Amino acid sequence: MSRLPDSARRALTTVFAVIAAVLCLACAVAVAAEKASPPAKTAAAGRKPSPLVGTWKLVSIEERNADGKLVTPLDYGPAPLGLLMYDAGGHMSAQAVRRDRPRLESDDVHRVPPEQAKQAFVGFNGYFGTYDVDERAGVVVHHVEGALLPNWEGKDQRRRFTLSGNKLILEPPSFQADGQQRTRRLTWQRVQ
């Protein structure tokens, strides 16, 4: 580098300094991201992968009232749509929606009449977070980080599960729907 003119030497020194700074910044970002991520729940982390890992499509929701009578789910109707995902890193996401929700008057949700907004809200549920599986007890616990229902955020949603081939059945605890006690059984089909 001593044979180069001073201006070229200064330019190369600047280029090397910029490259070194970018590499240091990239390393710092990678370390910060690794520290912020929850520990992986995979065999590499000393745990065997969960049998729930994958993408699941909702097949049906079976709902019963307090007398044990089969009823149509108030919020999802007779033929709901849904998707459930569990990844090997311990993250999950779930959505269920009423198939026949009426269209809103506007794409601007701030200008939708309150009754339409309520119908759209009641006909959908979605949340995401992390999960733990207790295979022996047949329980999966969803640790909710974000949800349509703000009351679920920061709380756990426990589900009894039964896994048979490519079918997954989840049974949440009993709940209230429009003042009525209900139980629910969701059947999912593995798609991936």
Describe this protein's structure.
21% of the residues lie in helices and 39% in strands. With 192 residues, the protein is α+β, with helices and mostly antiparallel strands. It is globular, with a radius of gyration of 25 Å. About 18% of the residues have low confidence. The chain folds into two domains: 36 residues; 148 residues, Beta Barrel (Lipocalin), CATH 2.40.128.280. A hairpin with a 2-residue loop joins strand 7 and strand 8. It has an eight-stranded antiparallel barrel with strand order 1-3-4-5-6-7-8-10. It is built from two helices and ten strands, in the order αββββαββββββ.
List the helices and strands and how they pair.
Blueprint (H helix, E strand, L loop, with lengths): L5 H31 L17 E12 L4 E2 L9 E6 L4 E7 L16 H9 L1 E11 L4 E9 L8 E9 L2 E5 L3 E3 L2 E11 L2
Antiparallel strand pairs: 1-2, 1-3, 1-10, 3-4, 4-5, 5-6, 6-7, 7-8, 8-10, 9-10
